[in-house]
Design goal:
alpha/beta; Rossmann fold; 2 domains; seven-stranded parallel beta sheet; 14 strands
Length: 427
């Protein structure tokens, strides 16, 4: 009954959803394309009966990539279906896997769209990354006997409160999930409060600790650093959002009074904001260089804009100190582990609820610092820039924390393979 009301409301809201796509397409034209896929209309894959992996956007896709690569290696006989909901996530799938996987947008959670998607692809297992609780998706997976795993599952206190508003529907939906692989005990506890059966829950840790950096990255970073300037300090502000860029540029102005030679590497979270960030920096009076121009960065450059996709690890590796964005504003923060894995000291703002346990672990161990505002950000970054020994020590702790917490990927792969074996036995 609750799901039927939810579905009816979703159908009523569909025109507004399409208007939102059009609105977003003003900044990112790709949102205007491939609407049919969002309603389950697309040519079927050459092979059916594979593993379906859903990752919302770039962040989830980055986390899922090692798992997908492992499954492709260990089960080459199984086709892999990978879905996203954003154009940037879609681009990342194609950049990383090309034709090795079948890729379309995930269907909207409308009964007809979900049924069309499942009947067209006929997966034998669905792996949904992080926090995607969709009533119709899980309902029809259960109806068609498709086991479902919520993998690398995380649930902030804020999100838990949101889902609890629809308590009965959420409990009904979680009751249809075959297995929940939670990042941490707090995540598992919050899911349990919402109605996820404890018998179907396991704490595996975060697969984001299982970072595999390219062997050539350090060499590429040395080239990048020579381009940025080896005789000047470099501070990166990564995955920044609207309103946060202004805060970062304001902090940068204050830092330059102490470190006049400081270079800011500014990497906005979303590609549609690359040009806006460059414009903001130029309007502030800074000399700007764009990564997409692929030219030598002039020594008089003040702000280097990382306006390319997939190069964030390279930018981190070429920097001295990293600020991880989405955290000075109440967005919830982004993944700090890439910077930590590269031995770069990490500073975040106060809003890190998307990475609560990871952020707390790094803080507790001394691999990162958390600030309340722009003035505190200035103080921490300058402190690290002026003390190379402290930077090196903090960076070394970050690497150690990463190494100590690896292993979640292997646990998750094992759980996936167990479900595949059970499904095979049932046939």
């Amino acid at each position: 009954m609750h799901r039927n009301l939810y579905s009816a409301l979703l159908y009523l809201l569909t025109p507004l959803v399409l208007l939102k796509l059009l609105w977003r397409s003003l900044k990112a034209p790709d949102y205007r394309l491939r609407w049919g896929e969002r309603f389950g209309h697309f040519p079927p894959p050459q092979q059916r009966g594979g593993i379906w992996i859903h990752a919302v956007s770039v962040g989830e896709m980055q986390a899922a990539a090692p798992m997908i690569r492992t499954l492709l290696e260990r089960h080459p006989e199984l086709p892999m279906i990978v879905t996203t909901t954003t154009p940037t996530g879609s681009r990342r799938v194609r950049e990383m896997f090309g034709t090795d996987v079948f890729h379309v947008y995930a269907p909207y959670d409308l009964p007809a769209a979900v049924k069309r998607f499942l009947l067209t692809t006929r997966p034998r297992l669905a792996v949904i990354m992080e926090t995607e609780i969709w009533p119709n998706l899980f309902h029809y997976c259960e109806r068609y006997n498709i086991p479902t795993i919520i993998a690398n599952a995380r649930l902030s206190e804020r999100s838990a409160k949101g889902y609890s508003t629809f308590e009965k529907l959420t409990k009904e939906t979680l009751g249809k999930v075959t297995l929940l692989a939670a990042q941490g005990k707090r995540d598992a506890s919050r899911f349990a409060t919402l109605g996820m059966p404890i018998r179907s829950t396991q704490v595996t840790g975060s697969i984001k600790f299982d970072i595999k950096l390219p062997a050539s990255l350090q060499e590429q970073a040395e080239v990048m650093r020579r381009n940025l300037g080896t005789d000047r300090p470099v501070w990166i502000a990564a995955s920044t959002h609207e309103r946060e860029d202004e805060m970062v540029l304001d902090a940068f102005a204050k830092m330059r009074k102490v470190q006049p030679n400081l270079l800011l590497v500014l990497v906005p979270r979303h590609p549609e904001r690359f040009s806006r960030a460059a414009e903001l920096a130029s309007q502030t009076g800074y000399r700007v260089c764009l990564r997409s121009e692929h030219r030598a960065c002039p020594h008089e450059t003040d702000v280097f804009i990382g306006d390319t996709m997939g190069e964030l690890p390279l930018f981190y590796a070429a920097s001295d100190v990293a600020f991880v964005g989405g955290s000075l504003i109440p967005h919830g923060g982004h993944n700090p582990l890439e910077a930590a894995a590269l031995g770069v000291p990490v500073v975040t703002g106060p809003h890190v609820f998307n990475f609560e346990e990871i952020s707390q672990l790094l803080l507790t161990r001394g691999a990162s610092r958390q600030v309340k505002n722009g003035d505190e950000l200035v103080a921490v970054v300058l402190d690290w820039l002026e003390d190379a020994n402290q930077r090196e020590a903090v960076g070394a702790i970050g690497k150690t924390v990463i190494d100590e917490n690896r292993g979640a990927l292997q646990k998750l792969i094992q759980l996936i393979e167990e479900q595949l074996e059970r499904r095979q036995t049932q046939r």
